[in-house]
Amino acid sequence: MKSFKTKKVLAVFAAAAVAAGTLTGCGGSNGGQQSQAQQPQSSSQGQAQSAADASAATDSAESQGFTYPMDTDAKLTYWCELNQNVSANYSNLGDTPFGQEWQKETGVSIEFQHPPANQGSEQFSLLLADGDLPDLLEYAWMSYPGGPEKAIKDGNIYELTDIINQYCPNLRKYLDENPDIDRMIKTDEGHYYCFPFIRGDDKLCNTIGLMLRQDWLEELNMEVPTTIDEWHDVLVAFRDKEGASAPLSWEYTMGALTSANPFAYAYGTCQDFYLGEDGKVHYGPAEDGYKQYLELFRQWYSEKLIDQDLGTLALDQVSAKITSGEAGASIGWAGSRMGTWINAAVKTNPEFMLVTAPYPTLKEGDSPKMGQIDNRYPNQAAVAITTSCKDIEAAARLMDYAYGEAGHMLFNFGIEGESYEMIDGYPTYTDKILNNPDGWSVAQSMSAYIRGNYNGPFVQDLRYLEQYYTIETQKESNLVWGATDAAKYKVPPITPTAEESKEYSTIMNEVNTYRDEMTLKFILGDESLDKFDEFVETLKGFGLDRALEIQNAALERYNAR
Amino acid sequence: MKKSSFSVRAKKDFRRNRNLYLLVLPVLAFYIIFHYKPMYGAVIAFKDYSPGLGIGKSPWVGFDNFIRFFSGPYFGRLIRNTLLLSLYNLLFGFPAPIVLALLLNEVRNKKFKSLTQTITYLPHFISMIVVTGMITNFCMSNGLFNDIIVFFGGERSPLLQNPRLYRTIYVASSIWQEVGWGSIIYLSALSGVDAQLYEAASIDGAGKWKQLLHVTLPGISPTIITMLILKMGSLMSLGYEKTILLYNAATYETADIISSYIYRVGLVDQDWSYSTAIGLLNSVINCILLVLTNRLSKKISDTSLW
Fold first, then answer.
1. Which of the four pLDDT bands, split at 50, 70 and 90, describes residue B2?
2. Do A128 and B269 touch (CB under 8 A)?
3. pLDDT of residue A14
């Protein structure tokens, strides 16, 4: 009797030991050295697993036949930047018709939290440093210091592979059908970390380009310029005959517009990394083409063809100059710049019209090679589930909704009967959007009902853009700006390893500061171009070659994904 | 009489002034909770801080972050810019409110005096964003300042893109914004100077200028020195707000200061440990400056903070 009891106790111990062994095994297999960060992850996956097992046991069809809205009382916190077109009329995304519909359709209540305007990355840093994270965190996760893999290892966000396979049939299906995208949104280690913003069509990726005054061109009897020389003639004519004090003016202080400089592309370079003909990552400013580009701009600046206040230009000043005729050409987006300016200027000057110009070339008849292009996964507004999240299934299902049929329509077109009607199978925006009765701009009324016109965790639909662009020249912008081989020269979304990332960011922080400073000085004429070689030497002294080595290794890992 | 031990005296004092101690308690708690407890976080300057691990578990790296700053390419420039800008701020910004206060003190027309005071206070209440926005627009090549330059026969140029002008713009605008507000304390000190002294001086044949030198200035000198010591303590701690709103790549050379650099590496690049190390270093320098000035003033003028 007694011996039997001992045996039983022993057996229990043995079972416990085996169980413990399996558990630790699970934790270890997930990726080595990390600490407590892994703990909640493996246990939550365990929970998810057992929860799924349980539901499978009661009703094997349930996971297949899952339907929205969910029957849950989950309330999730969701942190994201509030787009300025939304904040013009709403202080919280949850107040918009879009936000309410999303919660109603999914059955999950969301409490949106927003940082003050233009402080997204600072506030994101503070959130992380503080450690008190919302359940869902929308951010440019590729920009997380150390890369997304580090965000997982730091214990800030969950690795999503199992979660996506378990709860996200829509996203899973999309990724299976689009292996290119699938490769972009994974880490080198093959881990998923976010619900991505994806541009659903290549045409959505050409967003920035040159534009100039069409009515002036007609007055001057000139053609839309295609080469650097023609551009020079046009700008001179704008200066002398149209009285423009700043013929070419754009928001130089905005990184996106300065790194995508069409005139630099003409010399086969840019302000940032690009993919060379040799299939390796190059740093534009350290190459000869950059010197030629600087010479050109220095010349133009001294001829007063470029805005003399270049270094301090921000949106409001550029807008004022373009619409008042102080400037005649600019670099920017077809919607938020071109459309806005045309609509604002025609009120006082009915003749005012802008036209898109192709990426310029050095020789007449050449077709432009490089140009601005976004990756289909443009590193914007991707949503991660943080380790603070208790109800992972609700979070995952909420996010997956957007990648399904109904969610796709909601995110891109809004609510049927309110913001759009199906006309011949084509979702057409109603007058509420296109001619808003409250006098809101199209961008603002769209932003109340959809996220399609800016970004977010969903697949962007080209049909939104076809209607968002209301002016003929805007509609052509994709074709005019897209007529390059830009994709060939675009560095895919690569990330350094967590170990290299600190070294990389230290180097690039110094390199980019120096590049910004010297580039402007070369253009303004404060520094002689004889010093260009010295400039390149200094960049190398900061460790540029090492940074390129890291980038190229990352590219190899990416290609091997 | 034999002096009793400290603990005995403290107990006695506590019993006698219990209510006073009770009154000071909330203030003490405020300082401990909001000023001393967060100081613990400064240890991340010696660590490789990762938010996932928390302060306690992040690995120690010793003085690595400090060495990185000292050996970095921008170290010399940042220190020079911070020091020079602070120095100019002190050199021109410190006497300005004193001069204004002395001038106002001589004004006999009450209405004019209060009007001038109100007008000079006002800029203090304008938010920094608005002030820098105004400066930026005035400095543009078609802005107000250039209109004035052209009126006097000069040529238009983008002023904010000129590194040689940056410090002037920065310091002059600071004076414009703070001179009225800063003069308040001196005006109150001036009103405390005994009127009999002026009478006696004028009987002795002192004119306005002599009165100013021998009565007024000595009268407010304790205030001036106290203010100077306080100012010295914050000499190196120029805020980043104005700098990041006013500078651009063309003026980094003279404009980039320690705090704007901390802002960039700490909040934009999220390199918390590194930026904490620089911030800590900055505070240590400030602390040393404060102690030195205090000792100096004790020696020269017998006025000191402690």
1. low
2. no
3. 45
If we measure between CA atoms, which residue out of B257, B248, B255, B260 comes closest to residue B140?
A: B248
Q: What is the mean predicted confidence (pLDDT) over B233-242?
A: 79
**Hey, how many other C-beta atoms are within 10 angstroms of the C-beta on B305?**
14
Pairwise CA distance, residues A244 & A235, whole Å: 9
Q: Which residue carries 């500078």 as its tokens?
A: B247
Q: Which residues of A, range 467-496, sit inside 8 Å of B by Cβ?
A: none
- Domain annotation covers residue A98: yes
- The verdict on A358 and A504 lying in the same domain is yes
Residues A125 and A157 in one domain: yes
Q: Which CATH number fits the domain that encloses residue A156?
A: 3.40.190.10
Total tally of structural domains belonging to chain A? 2
pLDDT average, residue stretch B183-195: 89
B247/chain A closest Cα distance in angstroms: 8
pLDDT tens per residue across span B102-147: 999 888 898 999 999 999 999 999 999 999 999 999 999 889 999 9
Which residues of chain A are under the pLDDT cut of 70? 1-65
Residues of B in contact with A122 (CB under 8 A): 267-268
Domains and CATH numbers, chain B: 1-32 (no CATH), 76-301 (1.10.3720.10)
Whether residues B57 and A35 touch (CB distance < 8 A) is answered with yes
Same domain, A197 and A220: no
A242 in any annotated domain: yes
Residue A15, Cα to own-chain centre: how many angstroms? 50
Domain range spanning residue A172? 37-52+66-201+378-460
Do the chains contact at B140 and A521, CB–CB below 8 Å? no
Which residues in B lie closer than 8 A to residue A259 (C-beta atoms)?
none
Q: Give the pLDDT score at A29.
A: 36
Domain contains A23:
no
Q: Are A161 and A186 in contact (CB under 8 A)?
A: no
* Nearest Cβ partner for A312 among B54, B161, B271: B161
Contact B250 A309 (CB under 8 A): no
Do A308 and B249 lie within an 8 Å CB cutoff? no
Q: Report CB contact under 8 Å: B52, A154.
A: yes
Shortest distance, CA A325 to any CA of chain B (angstroms): 14
Of A121, A502, A524, the CB nearest to B250: A524
Q: Residue A522: its pLDDT value, please?
A: 95
Across the interface, whether the CB atoms of B52 and A37 are under 8 A apart is answered: yes
pLDDT tens per residue across span B144-157: 999 999 999 888 89
The verdict on A185 and A273 lying in the same domain is no
Residues facing A192 on adjacent strands = A186
For residue A40, the distance in angstroms to the closest alpha carbon of chain B comes to: 12
Q: Are residues A236 and A358 in the same domain?
A: yes
Question: How much is the average pLDDT of B69-76?
Answer: 88
Nearest to A128 among B51, B140, B252 (CB): B51
ipTM of this model?
A: 0.81
Domain ends where: A444, A460, A476?
Answer: A460
pLDDT reported for residue B42: 87
- Residue A13 inside a domain? The answer is no
Co-location of A512 and A448 in the same domain: no
Residue A165 Cα, gap to closest chain B Cα (Å) = 26
Question: What are the C-alpha distances in Å from A460 to residues A86, A179, A198, A450, A465?
Answer: 18, 17, 6, 11, 9
CA distances for A240 relative to A133, A220, A236, A429, B99, angstroms: 57, 11, 6, 44, 50
A405 shares its domain with A544? no
For A470, residues 6+ apart whose C-beta sits below 8 A from its C-beta are A339, A434, A442
Distance from the Cα of B180 to chain A's closest Cα (Å) equals 29
Q: HSE (CB half, 13 Å, CA atoms) of A486?
A: 28
Asked whether residue A358 falls in the same domain as residue A217, the answer is yes
Domain boundary among A409, A440, A460: A460
Chain A residues inside the 8 Å CB shell of B69: none
Do A523 and A290 meet the contact criterion of CB atoms below 8 Å apart?
Answer: no
Query: Distance (Å, rounded) from C-alpha B183 to C-alpha B102?
Result: 9
Residue B3 predicted with pLDDT over 90: no
